[in-house]
Structures are given as structure tokens and as C-alpha cells.
Specification:
CATH topology: Rossmann fold
Radius of gyration: 15 Å
Largest sheet: 6 strands, mixed
Strand content: 15-25%
CATH superfamily: Formyl transferase, N-terminal domain
Number of domains: 1
Number of helices: 5
Distance between the termini: 20 Å
CATH class: Alpha Beta
Oligomer: single chain
Length: 136
């Protein structure tokens, strides 16, 4: 099964997946980031589908279609979102229905959103964890 990891930042989750007992066929990033170096160091092909627009006029469906095209060109069958900074739209989830794993740094539904760890610490929780789920 051909797995792609989608990443945006430091690549710590991406690296954990690369180090696991699973073959990563490609890493796709939406910006230049440390995940590129991590993947290349392991000989994993990197696809940069750069997001140049972070404003209100960002066309999420168009960008999602570009991501799907890149993944299909690499014959990707399953996707793991590992700290990917862009929320993808219906074209992506339709193309990979039931085959997208997402990681989140809290035990959902507690502490959703981008600042889950900070929110958990501010809330004073004594136990926390992470969630891996099928994204839709």
C-alpha cells in the first residue's frame, strides 16, 4: 500500500511515521519546511504543492484538487496528515474517502484546534494524549 505523509512544519510527526515499520512512498508539503529535509535524508520523494495564498480569497477546492493530482501522479493509496497546516476540501476527501488518517495532539473532543497542547496546559490537565482518526 502506497502511503503519503502530509506535513507542514518541523516534521516531528512525519519523522515518527518514517521511523515506524511502514513504507512511506512520498511526503507532500504545502510550504518549505523542515519536513522536506527529514524526508530527503531518508530518500523519500517530496512533493511541494505550495500554498501561496493565506487570505480569504484562498480557493480551498482548487488547492485540494492540486494536492489530489500530485498524490495520484505518485500512485498514492493512503494518506496520513501529520501536522499539515492547510485544511483540505471536498475534492481531497472525495478522492481518498476512508483512506485519510489525521493526527491531533489531544484526546478529542477535548482541546480541538491548532493550540491543543497550550490549551491543555492552561486548563491544568494532568493527563493528555493524542488522537488518530479517519478524517472526513
Amino acid at each position: 500500500m502506497r502511503l503519503a505523509v502530509l506535513a507542514s512544519g518541523t516534521g516531528s510527526i512525519c519523522k515518527a511515521i518514517i521511523n515506524a515499520d511502514v513504507e512511506v512512498a512520498a511526503v507532500l508539503v504545502d510550504r518549505r519546511c523542515s519536513a522536506i529535509d527529514l524526508a530527503e535524508a531518508d530518500g523519500i520523494p517530496v512533493m511541494l504543492v505550495e500554498r501561496n495564498n493565506f487570505g480569504r480569497e484562498f480557493d480551498r477546492d482548487q488547492y485540494s484538487t492540486e494536492v489530489v493530482a500530485a498524490l495520484r501522479a505518485a500512485n498514492i493509496e493512503v494518506v496520513a496528515m501529520a501536522g499539515f497546516g492547510t485544511i483540505l476540501g471536498a475534492p481531497f476527501f472525495d478522492a481518498y474517502e476512508g483512506r485519510v488518517l489525521n493526527t491531533h495532539p489531544s484526546l478529542l473532543p477535548s482541546f480541538p484546534g491548532w493550540h491543543a497542547v497550550t490549551d491543555a496546559l492552561r486548563h491544568g490537565v494532568r493527563v493528555t494524549g493524542c488522537t488518530v482518526h479517519i478524517a472526513t
